[in-house]
């Protein structure tokens, strides 16, 4: 085991996909965290169930680790409560939390991983940082690109992917799920080396 793994060796890891609940938002760019979580749940062979921590969860194994996969049941800007509540229920420190989210400042499909940092205007991350009381949790960032022209970013993230993007989306989500598995199985540096494009 490497020193830059989420959590202690052998410890449970909480993987959180961010999004907005309900069919109205299901295909939105802001919901790529949910989409990656769904892919990971399929790999685990599990189904999400409502949990008292405020999220839907699946428990199982990925990349040789015990994991809890979670999708907050709140709206994006209130994600912190369910994330902190689920972490507390499973007695996990923030260092064992991995959050998968959309990122405006990365081109579509780009995957970047990091530990800590700011929220870059992302209300879901801002809420999680406030509720956990620290910025020191892992993030897997999925690029959705900037809106064209003078379009409002707040509107852009709540629109579905374009026809062109949808042709590549399944492949990119699969790759992002691979990056999550690399992070929890091999550590941050190995995952960055494998998935960060030059």
UniProtKB/TrEMBL annotation:
Record site feature (Discriminates between blocked and unblocked aminoacyl-tRNA), residues: 20
InterPro entries referenced in this protein's UniProt entry, alphabetically: Pept_tRNA_hydro, Pept_tRNA_hydro_CS, Pept_tRNA_hydro_sf
Keyword vocabulary terms for this entry: Cytoplasm, Hydrolase, RNA-binding, tRNA-binding
CDD domains per the UniProt record, alphabetical: PTH
Cell location: Cytoplasm
Enzyme kind, highest EC tier: hydrolase
Pfam hit, one: Pept_tRNA_hydro
MF annotations from Gene Ontology: peptidyl-tRNA hydrolase activity
Site (Stabilizes the basic form of H active site to accept a proton): 102
Presence of the UniProt keyword tRNA processing in the record: no
Coiled coil region boundaries: none
Described purpose of this protein according to its UniProt entry: Hydrolyzes ribosome-free peptidyl-tRNAs (with 1 or more amino acids incorporated), which drop off the ribosome during protein synthesis, or as a result of ribosome stalling.
NCBIfam families, A to Z: pth
Protein's recorded name: Peptidyl-tRNA hydrolase
Species for this entry: Amycolatopsis pigmentata
